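Lecture 7, part B: from sequences to assemblies.

Below are the input chains for today's worked example.
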Amino acid sequence: MSRDPGTVFIGRKPAMSYVLAVITSFSSGNAKEITLKARGQAITTAVDTAEIVRSRFLKDLKISKISIGTEELPPREGENRSRMVSTMEISMAKE
Amino acid sequence: MSRDPGTVFIGRKPAMSYVLAVITSFSSGNAKEITLKARGQAITTAVDTAEIVRSRFLKDLKISKISIGTEELPPREGENRSRMVSTMEISMAKE
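Predicted structure of the full complex, as structure tokens:
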């Protein structure tokens, strides 16, 4: 995963934290497109974030791309099998 | 939400239950396209289901469409505000 300013990594915080991050990125910089990246249970938060941003705050945003995938994570301590986890990316752009 | 045979509603069961439903639909009928529909926390399960079907079982499937949205649910008993919940639809089709 890259660290460019057009990317917001979704974790375990409430969706509103990420909504704020997206709004800040769009309003502070030259970002024309922001991509939300999430894994596992955070996928739901990513969808919530995109929907809240679009319906309440930046109504001219369009979802430009949605993709899903699978990532292999190293095994947890005490386990010996690597884990497969689902990933999702949602890109939003100004028209 | 419609009840046509090309739709699989994702709920609280483990992803493997829905994987089986998708495989059955594709192999038993004339379905060329199956759409997974999920709300809230089940969105993660929908992504897991799509990824497991595609990587382990039906490798010729392509994700034909992914969309997200918001649905308004009636308030829970004792509350007086309706709840907004995120939704997701993933369509998978044979090539």
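Note for the exam: Chain A has two helices and four strands. Keep this in mind when comparing with the next example.
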